[in-house]
Amino acid sequence: MALILENVSLAIDRHQILEQISFKLPIGQSLVVLGNSGAGKSKLLEVVAGLISNQGGRIIFAGQDIGALSPQERKIGFVFQDYALFPNLTAEANILFGLQARHAPVREQDRWLKAVSIELKIDHLLKRFPAELSGGQQQRVALARCMVLRPDVLLLDEPLSALDAASRERLALLMKKIQKKYRVTMLYVTHDHNEARYMGDQVLVIDQGRAVQMGRPEEIFARPVSRFVAHFTATRNILPGRIKERCGDGMALVKVAGCQLLSTSFPARGEDVWVCMRPEHLSLIGALPDISNELSNEISGETFDKTSGDNLISGYRICQIIPQSGAAVLVELMRRGERLMVFASSRRIENQGLLSNTEVELAVAARHVHCLPRQPEDIYCRPE
Amino acid sequence: MKISAFSAFMTLIVLLAGLFFSSPFAALLNSFAAADSLGQLFNRQIFIVVTTSLVTALLATGLAAVVGTVLGYHFTFRKKAGGRWLKTFFSLPLVLPPSAAGYMLLLAFGRYGLIGAPLYQAFSLQIMFTTAALVLAQFFVITPLMMQAASSAFQQVPESLVKASHSLGANEYTTFVKVLLPLSRPVLVAGVITAFARAIGEFGATMLVAGRLKTIPIMIYVKAMGGDAGVADGLSLLLVLLSFMVLLLVNFLGEKR
């Protein structure tokens, strides 16, 4: 039992918006559709909702082809980016709009209004008009308006993009809870990789209307299939490299940025590669020459041993330390024009007295050195 | 304080325009006061003329409100091939000389006209030179106005609201009644008021189809040409006041929105 899209395409005014999108999402799971602005993410949701007719593909839910049904016949809830609450109606009338349009009995309307408004903590806001609600409250009303219809599929189009950081966190938690509680199949559109990581059981990356990768979030983030996906999932270290030797034990020796690294993830053929290393997978061991033999990375919780075969990178100097949320910092390191970005804890930076221009040593596990095929025509733009 | 040449030029243009546009109104007030026009307005003939104007304008506006709104909806949401051509066609009366519009209506609905002839032969029904002809002429002229008002009103409703309505299970009719109409109401009402003002002031087309019937603009023409300044002044002032109030109301609605 799944939501299946088969070769869904869409062209508007001879402009191809979606091209042969296919995926299979088990019922009750959430799929985050991740992509740039204009990649076709929102249009994909509109096609699934039936607001735009799909051109040629099939949309199947629980074995039934729903592609030809009108939006009214599909049991699909849609939360829009701007919430799309009717400004002339109270929160209550907004929530009941769908039930009334479907001629639900009054008793049922009351029951669901009460249940969902309590669940979403908006029962005290029902008599207010949308203009009298905060962004977060409007979002809850929009979500309630869909949930009272008990949809099979819930579509959310960048629902958190217009909210402040605190509201985003609260609502993300709430949506995840609601989705799991009601086991509703969810398509969640965003361009924020952090949201994708948290909200999705699966992630689908879209580029210019084409699906480029789908998988579990950890797979997508650890093993991007292209430089675009790597860049879009915030793999901040994407460097041109060359495979020097395929060792035969599932390892390859890669020459990158003046050093040689072991990698367990590399293409079967070709020598030129993009070497991708996520900032959270790089460990800032400490200032040279005072390097201990075994140090823990407080971010990933891993232990590196210099003798174990994990990679050590040296010769980089701290360029700047950028505070992040919580106790983390992003450290920019430079060596002969090559840049690396590393997450560290601010406590470690403080304890070790790491300052700008301090030379440091880094460690990265071979399994976190991910190599992508690089075409000769790929242009390497050194980051500013 | 130094005044720039540009600022002086702008002020001069505003002053000259003000002088030009206020001169007819000043002349009307002057003539109205001199001719003791108020007294001449209170007679049966003028009462019939004003009543005819109001009744025909109200009927034409009511019809145009319905048809114009439907056309506006059609051209906003049901974009089909050739829609642009069709919308341009329906907008033609906006720019057509009213006398040409009246003449064409005569050709279509006159006793020997394209539609008028069969109607007369089948039912002995004559439209031209009756109150119905006045309504028809005004309706022909103001419907495009209403269509454009409705079109812009519907375009101002965020697309996501219409999509939200459909995704919640509302059909086209429910979305129209529960979402589009309430949210477009101020612009639609402004459109209706403007259309009414245009209908009551319609002269060219009504003149050709009116026969012996007279509306306020026709009466002004007849009296002004006949040298009866008193009635012409009084009726002109009445129309000026009516138009002013209409514009005031439209502006008020615009601000409220």
Describe the structure concisely for a colleague.
Chain A is α+β, with helices and mostly antiparallel strands.
Secondary structure layout:
The complex is a heterodimer of chains A (384) and B (257).
Chain A: E1 2-12, E2 15-26, E3 30-35, H1 41-49, E4 58-61, E5 64-65, E6 76-79, H2 91-101, H3 106-119, H4 135-147, E7 153-157, H5 165-182, E8 185-190, H6 193-199, E9 202-207, E10 210-215, H7 217-222, H8 227-232, E11 237-246, E12 252-256, E13 259-263, E14 272-277, E15 283-287, E16 294-296, E17 303-305, E18 311-323, E19 328-335, E20 338-345, H9 346-351, E21 359-364, E22 370-373
Parallel strand pairs in A: 3-8, 3-9, 6-7, 7-8
Antiparallel strand pairs in A: 1-2, 1-4, 4-5, 9-10, 11-12, 11-14, 12-13, 14-22, 15-21, 16-17, 18-19, 18-21, 19-20
Helix pairs in contact in A: 2-4, 4-5
Chain B: H1 5-35, H2 37-41, H3 44-77, H4 83-95, H5 98-109, H6 116-123, H7 131-156, H8 159-167, H9 172-200, H10 204-209, H11 216-225, H12 229-256
